[in-house]
Design a protein that fits this description.
This protein is 53% helix and 13% strand. By secondary structure, it is an alpha+beta fold. It folds into two domains: 104 residues, endopeptidase fold (from Nostoc punctiforme), CATH 3.90.1720; 120 residues. The protein has a five-stranded antiparallel β-sheet. Strand 2 and strand 3 form a beta hairpin. The chain starts with 5 loop residues before the first strand and ends with a helix. About 4% of the residues have low confidence.
């Protein structure tokens, strides 16, 4: 491990393992999306980042930024509070610092059946879990919440990306139609563009709601586990 490396430790939420990513700053700790309290980009000692787990270095392409640039990019976002599981999570952040690409490869490994998502019921489970249910019952509530939350990347994210692509495609069609003097075709294309844009916005809003629920589950898990010890 060296300054500027993208590192990760294996954590879990209700038995589901995932990689928690950050940027190694050497003796100055690790900059990452800390989820203690409100999710914030923060600097944390390496042992607190690891939480007793082994820390791994993520292999990077030769085009990755040099260490000084990586750390500078990470420091530029200290204090940020815009965590989103689907669009701005710890891996998005670390990859952006290291390569300039805000992406999360491990999202493709998640996904339950989106047809099982029941937003009001899930919110109720989270609230009940946070309001003093017996620890054993709380863990069962979390399990039930996870089965309903459905981190639905295999279905919802591709739908979001398709709707976004359609928005751009219909925008180009409208531009070409106007260039040829076909206002009728341009109006039809713009109508399709607006419909695709609304669909993309609706899916993104829904994914953000799921992200907030996932974060709530993760933050409450530590409290529940401490009550079980």
């Amino acid at each position: 491990m060296a300054r500027g490396d993208q590192i990760y430790a294996i954590r879990e939420i209700i038995g589901i393992p995932y990689e928690h990513h950050g940027i190694d700053c050497g003796s100055e700790g690790v900059i990452h999306y800390s989820k203690v309290g409100e999710a914030t980009v923060a600097r944390t000692p390496r042992d607190r980042f690891a939480r007793g787990s082994r820390v791994y270095v993520k292999a990077q392409p030769a085009t990755a930024f040099i260490p000084e640039v990586v750390i500078g990019r990470a420091e530029s976002r200290l204090g940020e509070r815009q965590y989103d599981l689907f669009f701005n999570n710890c891996e998005h952040f670390a990859n952006w610092c290291k390569t300039g690409r805000s992406e999360c490869i491990q999202l493709s490994n998640f996904g339950l059946d989106p047809s099982q998502i029941k937003q009001p019921q899930v919110s109720d489970l989270v609230n009940r879990a946070a309001q003093g249910e017996p620890p054993e019952q709380t863990m069962l509530l979390f399990q039930e919440a996870l089965s309903n939350v459905a981190i639905a990347t295999r279905t919802l994210l591709p739908q979001y990306e398709a709707a976004t692509d359609d928005t751009l495609a219909w925008h180009r069609v409208a531009q070409r139609a106007l260039a040829k003097g076909r206002e009728d075709l341009a109006r039809a294309a713009l109508h399709r563009k607006v419909a695709a844009q609304k669909q993309a916005e609706g899916i993104k809003t829904y994914l953000s709601q799921l992200s907030e629920l996932q974060l709530s589950l993760e933050q409450n898990q530590t409290l529940v586990q401490s009550r079980l010890i």
